[in-house]
Specification:
The complex is a heterodimer of chains A (181) and B (215).
Chain A (H helix, E strand, L loop, with lengths): L13 H22 L3 E5 L2 E5 L1 H10 L3 H28 L8 H14 L5 H12 L7 E4 L2 H18 L14 E2 L3
Antiparallel strand pairs in A: 1-2, 1-3
Helix pairs in contact in A: 1-3, 1-6, 2-3, 3-4, 3-6
Chain B lengths: L12 E2 L6 E3 L8 E3 L6 E4 L5 H20 L3 E5 L2 E5 L3 H8 L3 H28 L7 H16 L2 H15 L4 E4 L1 H24 L16
Antiparallel strand pairs in B: 1-2, 3-4, 5-6, 5-7
Helix pairs in contact in B: 1-3, 1-6, 2-3, 3-4, 3-6
Classes of the chains: A mainly alpha (181), B alpha+beta (215).
């Protein structure tokens, strides 16, 4: 279980606003994150710079399809899905939610779980930069795009953190329930 | 030595997702209690005693030292070889002027997981299942805040991806630091999951009494 914030006694009306602000910041940061290079490789007679997307294409070109899929999911799909999901949650909870509350809750739990995995690309660039240091033979250097990408990941995590999922259930009766194992 | 698992009963507690106050039954080992309304898992009957969570926590803390001090990987190209350490990546980011990102990578990769393990160790000392203790509740909130930003498993996946990516460029040999870090990441995950669902002091429903005002 990944949901563990200690919210105040009642859902705060500001929680949606804060979540929207963080989500918007993440969306803005995703633009330079995808346009700017995230790392460069100095190889003999070649200087290669990679954006997130060209890095994925390079993995495909090397025939490393499973890895390309992992990086594509963590670095591209998860941030986009997370922002889309957050947008949907914020839109759906602008009015009391009826029948769809359980589905929205599951969406929130999923978004909360997947967010951290986008940090994969940040750790990958850090590891490569610290490991491949052979001067003119082979050197990997981080590039500014990775800072923007890390900021986007942190903002999406803060957005999920700021959203109070009890807002989904605010129109439902609140009573103590006995449950069985 | 693990204490034999026993059925555990919890006081009424608020669901951390939807806020519904649930009265949980006594849970037998392996049984799972879910929120009546949103189906979030609230607690699991422990299959093992608290000592197993303590063992994983202590092992994780002990492994952190060698994970930092021993070579993480050895990389070679032609006749040249060098060793890199756990913090080499953060160091490279720092050298490139990305100071905040370097600190962030160091925090999420090692410092916060260690803080989580440390808090967990303190929790295991002061908490008792089903007993409401302010100190334990306070520590539990700190641990939950740390848990969100502790990402050793994500760093491990990144290292595995990097190994495959580097295959054609340089020769990479895993070092003892990497194995210690991998084991530390595993211990952190297992200790936290075990503690959170099976042995954590539950936040008492009384602290969420405001929710009942909506009845």
């Amino acid at each position: 279980m990944k949901i563990h914030r200690q919210f105040p006694a009642a859902p705060s009306p500001d929680s949606r606003g804060r979540a929207a602000a963080f989500a918007l910041s993440a969306a803005v940061m995703l633009i330079p994150a995808n346009l700017l290079p995230v790392l460069s490789m100095d190889l003999p007679g070649e200087l290669r710079t990679d954006t997130i997307f060209s890095g994925i294409v390079a993995l495909c070109d090397q025939g490393l399809w499973p890895l390309a899929l992992i990086v594509f999911t963590a670095s591209f799909l998860v941030p986009v899905l997370k922002l889309g999901g957050l947008g949907w949650l914020l839109f759906a909870t602008r009015r009391p939610v009826g029948e769809g509350a359980l589905g929205l809750t599951k969406l929130y739990v999923t978004l909360d779980f997947i967010g951290r995995w986008s940090m994969l690309d940040v750790f990958l660039v850090a590891f490569l930069s610290g490991t491949v240091r052979f001067g003119a033979l082979a050197t990997v250097r981080p590039q500014p795009g990775i800072v923007a990408f890390a900021a986007a990941v942190v903002f999406t995590m803060l957005a999920t953190d700021a959203f109070d999922p009890r807002a989904i259930w605010s129109s439902h009766s609140q009573s103590t329930e006995e449950i069985t194992a | 030595m693990s204490a034999p698992p026993a059925a555990v009963s919890f006081p009424p507690q608020s669901c951390p997702v939807c806020g519904l106050v649930n009265r949980l039954p006594r849970l037998q080992p392996g049984e799972c209690a879910r929120c009546h309304r949103c189906e979030t898992t609230l607690a699991v009957g422990p299959r093992s005693g608290r000592h197993s969570a303590s063992a994983f926590t202590l092992t994780g803390l002990l492994l952190a030292g060698p994970a930092v001090a021993l070579p993480f990987v050895t990389v070679s190209k032609f006749q040249s070889a060098h060793e890199s350490y756990l913090f080499s990546g953060a160091h490279a980011l720092w050298d490139s002027g990305m100071n905040v990102l370097a600190v962030w990578v160091g925090l999420c990769g090692l410092a916060v997981p260690l803080l989580l393990l440390g808090t967990l160790a303190a929790l295991l000392v002061v908490s008792e299942p089903g007993v409401d203790r302010p100190a334990a509740n306070f520590l539990l909130r700190i641990a939950r805040a740390f848990e969100q930003w502790a990402m050793p498993e994500v760093q491990m996946l990144a290292v595995l991806v990097a190994f495959a990516k580097l295959g054609s460029l340089v020769h990479v040999q895993p070092g003892p630091g990497l194995w210690c870090y991998a084991a530390m990441a595993l211990c952190t995950l297992v200790a936290w999951r075990n503690f959170e669902l099976c042995h954590a002091p539950q936040i008492p429903a009384a602290e969420s009494a405001g929710l009942l005002e909506h009845e």
